[in-house]
Amino acid sequence: MAEIQLGVIEARFADMIWEHEPVTSSELVKLAAETFAWKRTTTHTVLKRLCDKGLFENNSGTVTSLISRPQLHAMQSRKFVENTFDGSLPAFIAAFTKDNSLTPEEAAQIRAMIDQAEER
Description:
Elements: H1 8-20, E1 23-24, H2 25-36, H3 40-52, E2 56-59, E3 62-65, H4 69-85, H5 89-97, H6 104-119
């Protein structure tokens, strides 16, 4: 799947959509006016941009997601590891934990994730 990059405002607007979906575009106009002080045209422009990126779909005035928030975060995380650590998850974990210790709970969660990934 193609990389999806969002600016800060696009990300905040996407969060608003995920929070309220399925949501009508007219309801989004109201929410964006309250939250961002946007005009209707601005809301529709940003919504169209997010739809063009493949994140959402506006079907007859009802907006729904094509990619969930967790799916987007997973895609962005994988891309970050690829770009920054040459795709090496161990290198990422080493950098992440270099100056930060893990709590026993965090370590247990990570072990459980590794066990689950190995089973796939």
